[in-house]
UniProtKB/TrEMBL annotation:
Residues 1-155 form the X-Prolyl dipeptidyl aminopeptidase PepX N-terminal domain. GO terms for molecular function: aminopeptidase activity; dipeptidyl-peptidase activity; serine-type peptidase activity. Its EC number is 3.4.14.11. Residues 536-791 form the Xaa-Pro dipeptidyl-peptidase C-terminal domain. PANTHER family: COCE_NOND FAMILY, PUTATIVE (AFU_ORTHOLOGUE AFUA_7G00600)-RELATED, PEPTIDASE S9 PROLYL OLIGOPEPTIDASE. The gene is pepX. One of its GO terms (cellular component) is cytoplasm. The active site is at 369 (charge relay system), 489 (charge relay system), 520 (charge relay system). InterPro entries: AB_hydrolase_fold, Galactose-bd-like_sf, Pept_S15_Xpro, PepX_N_dom, PepX_N_dom_sf, Xaa-Pro-like_dom, Xaa-Pro_dipept_C, Xaa-Pro_dipeptidyl-ppase/CocE. This is Xaa-Pro dipeptidyl-peptidase. The lineage of its organism: Bacteria, Bacillati, Bacillota, Bacilli, Lactobacillales. Keywords: Aminopeptidase, Cytoplasm, Hydrolase, Protease, Serine protease. It is found in: Cytoplasm. One of its GO terms (biological process) is proteolysis.
Length: 797
């Protein structure tokens, strides 16, 4: 196993001494020879024993060489060496001798594991101080750095510690999570989405440290989650669309972007509520929030955490609108209250105002998927108090989530979902039947209007989708941005974060990008990466104002390699200017242009079609293999690669194609062919509830990406286009039967290593059983090979 630490801050000896004194490891005037000092540090870290005999007994459990245990060494006159120090250190970090490392080559093994090593003379006390400081910041085999592990075991108990406390530039787990204050307030938003003549009140669940009652002001992590008050699964399922329908021809038009551009409308709002009193404490609480474990980690470290579901959710006013400007405004209202710039009340009826007096006015947004999407949306509003967002697997353009180049496209795993489906699914107000009664008719009418505006009939980009496209507003972002995304996420596809990353390049804010090899997942519980430490360094700087060098220490682009386990690396750019072009041959991708044509038919035999509609995984498999799909798709491969190839960016396919009818669509897959073990896109659980997030506090599972069984191929990227939207997604081009047209499609961006001996494959086909409509129409596609090519972005590491 390799530990990858990017949140580690290197400090001077003087700073190390100062910080070790602050946490009780080093007395200011303490002076010992190196071996004595080391054992003093060890004794303070052995938290389960309180006397000398117990300490010596515990030392006997540790090796310090191939032939000696630490208790024998303690009673010997032998000098302390770096080999002895790190043999012990690796065991303290939960690595096992003879399993994870060999004592006879401990320094080489420690370096290979990724443990930061201290150079110097280990017979000198200053070297021991530097080495111990580094050890405390080193990650254990099981997910926490060593000091966090000690804190979870009670290191800070009965110590007089200033709160908040920072070590190595990061907030420490010194806050009492056993006495968290849980309260509910209702923020008054500048909205009336249910048109009841009153401004919408929005429920906010707050968890804050008990220490805030003692005049400690803390910053806030805000997760905007339309799911946090529950979902209406059956209602969403009932509304899900049938995708076994034909692709329809569209009437050509000359629509321009200006014609469909979203223009905000001014709506006259009801007056603000009349305040009838003031309160310092809420009158409503809750028992258990729908939490995110990264937030739980920071609750122990001096941050408040709040969860807001927004309009149209349980115990809040309004209706659900799925990505609209009103939904963003609702989430911004929460931030404004936390920053002291908006009103909230203790309940929905008494008009007793309450302020966030415990807040230092600084807010970060966290969360994945819809949650991260709303963080991106709020960042475009320049709202005071929002210092940074950590958006994970987030949408930057809703059109590219439910549509693609003029096609209705499902997010991976959810055929038939659309904006209106998600709206009713997250309209958790329905679960309060009495409350729902008052807005039911209005909401269902709004939902029907959504059906018309989202336009599944054409799949074109229009005003509805332009309102839900945040990319034009990225220029307005003023807060710093952290983005996390899976390179194998076919729900919120990699283009969503790539487009956001590209748009941010011209904006003078700090931006950090972390790309992993997973699907639609969180990565804060993987022991191979110090994600929690990185975010701690970042948030301690952004929300507490700590001058810790976070912007310089954290890499701009960090990505996980696909050919190794627990292997991460950095990049300066996502997207290579260097291109490698392959031309399409009959069944090969070659480096010289070909002539001739190839034809495939999108219509499957009825039995095969029915089988694929019920088993998308089988369709994916047979698409890439010889046999069942041979005449229903084009598939070509390169020769075996003579050397490794690193794809960095957006592959592009250019084809000249004709349809035998006056409509059509093409889908594309870029494939790695070659027998190998590959990383599974969903991490394995290493241990349940094994990652403590604080002292006697919540825990998370430990997970890690592992290799699966050997297989023959791996999907790298994909793309789709309606042949009638070859100019852009809002303009409909004409298409005549048997007339060749030229199209160009940028596939999903990637970072992917292709080992030597593998082959690059390209599949071109019509129906994508996982994402497009599935009409099983008698459409025959012909590719003109002379005008068809694949362009790959290549980087040499």
């Amino acid at each position: 196993m390799k530990i990858n630490q990017y949140g580690l801050k290197r400090v001077s000896l003087a700073e190390a001494k100062k910080e070790l004194s602050q946490i009780g490891f080093l007395a200011e005037k303490e002076s010992y020879e190196s071996k004595t000092l080391w054992f003093n540090f060890l004794q303070k870290s052995f938290l389960t024993v309180r006397d000398q005999s117990g300490f010596i007994n515990k030392l006997g459990n540790f090796l310090i060489s191939e032939t000696m245990d630490a208790a024998v060494f303690y009673q010997s006159t032998a000098p302390l060496t770096n080999e002895i120090f790190y043999t012990m250190a690796l065991q303290l970090l939960e690595f096992e001798p003879m399993i994870d490392f060999a004592p006879e080559k401990v320094l080489a093994d420690a370096k290979a594991i990724g443990v930061p090593l201290c150079e110097g003379d280990f017979t000198q006390s200053d070297t021991i101080i530097e080495a111990w400081y580094l050890l405390l910041t080193s990650h254990t085999k099981n997910g926490l750095n060593y000091l966090d592990k000690l804190a979870s075991e009670g290191y800070y108990e009965n110590k007089v510690i200033e709160k908040p406390l920072f070590f190595n530039g990061k907030a420490q787990a010194v806050f009492d999570t056993s006495r968290l204050i849980r309260e509910v307030v209702y923020v008054e938003a500048p909205l009336d989405t249910d048109r009841d003549g009153k401004r919408d009140l929005l429920k906010l669940e707050i968890l804050r440290p008990i220490e805030t009652e003692e005049e400690v002001q803390v910053p806030t992590l805000f997760t905007a989650s339309p799911y946090s008050q529950g979902v209406n699964g059956p209602a969403g399922e009932e509304r899900t669309y049938d995708v076994n329908v034909p692709l329809e021809r569209k009437e050509p038009n000359n629509t321009t972007y200006e014609e469909i551009k979203y223009q905000p409308q001014t709506i006259e709002l009801p007056a603000e509520r009349e305040v009838k009193g003031q309160a310092t404490h809420a009158t409503e609480t809750f028992s258990r929030e729908n939490s995110y474990s990264l937030n739980d980690f920071f609750l122990a470290r001096g941050f408040a955490v709040v969860y807001g579901a927004g309009i149209g959710t349980r115990d809040s006013d309004g209706i659900q609108t799925c990505g609209s400007t009103e939904q963003t405004t609702a989430m911004v209202a929460y931030i404004e209250w936390l920053a002291g710039n908006r009103r909230a009340f203790t309940n929905r009826t008494d008009n007793i105002e309450i302020a966030a007096w415990w807040s230092n006015g600084k807010v970060a947004m966290t969360g994945k998927s819809y949650l991260g999407t709303l963080a991106t949306a709020c960042a475009t509003r320049q709202v005071a108090g929002l210092e940074t967002i950590i958006s994970e697997a987030a949408i930057s353009d809703w059109y590219q989530y439910y549509r693609d180049n003029g096609l209705v496209i499902a997010p991976g795993g959810f055929p038939g979902e659309d904006a209106d489906v998600l709206a009713i699914e997250t309209f958790s107000k329905m679960r309060n039947a009495g409350d729902y009664l008052h807005s039911k008719e209005f909401f269902l009418n709004y939902l029907q209007r959504m059906v018309e505006l989202q336009d599944r009939k054409t799949g074109n980009y229009n005003t509805f989708w332009d309102e839900r496209n945040y990319l034009p507003a990225i220029k307005d972002i003023k807060c710093d941005v952290v983005m996390v995304h899976g390179l194998n996420d076919w729900n919120v596809k990699p283009r969503q974060v790539a487009d956001l990353w590209d748009a941010l390049q011209a904006i003078p804010v700090a931006k950090k990008l972390i790309l992993h090899q997973g699907q639609h997942i969180y990565i804060n519980n993987m022991p191979s990466l110090d994600f929690q430490d990185m975010m701690n360094l970042w948030l301690s700087h952004k929300l507490y104002g700590l001058d810790n060098g976070a912007k310089d220490i954290l890499p701009d682009i960090l990505y996980q390699k696909n050919t190794e386990t627990t292997s991460w690396s950095t990049l300066t750019n996502w997207g290579s200017e260097q291109k490698q072009t392959y031309y399409l041959g009959n069944d090969q991708l070659v480096q010289e242009q070909n002539s001739g044509t190839v034809t495939f038919n999108d219509q499957l035999p009825a039995v095969q079609y029915e089988k694929y509609t019920k088993n998308i995984a089988l369709w994916e498999k047979e698409l890439k293999e010889s046999g069942a799909m041979d005449v229903h798709r084009y598939l070509a491969k390169t020769e075996k690669l003579p050397a490794e190839v690193f794809l960095n960016g957006r592959p592009t396919v250019k084809v000249k194609v004709a349809s035998n009818v006056d409509l059509g669509m093409l889908s594309f897959e870029l494939i790695d062919f070659g027998r190998a073990k590959r990383l599974k896109p969903v991490p394995d659980v290493l241990a349940l509830h094994a990652l403590p997030l604080g002292r006697n506090w919540r825990e998370d599972n430990l997970v890690e990406f592992k290799f699966g069984a050997e297989d023959e191929y791996k999907l790298i990227s994909r793309g789709h286009i309606n042949l009638q939207n070859r100019s852009n997604p809002w303009k409909v081009d004409d298409l005549k039967a048997d007339e060749f047209v030229e199209i160009e499609v940028a596939l999903q961006p990637t970072l992917y290593h292709l080992p030597a001996g593998h082959q690059i494959g390209l599949a071109v086909y019509g129906t994508d059983f996982g994402m497009t409509v599935r009409g099983n129409q008698a459409i025959e596609y012909t590719l003109d090979l002379a005008e068809s090519s694949l362009e790959l972005p290549i980087t040499e590491e």
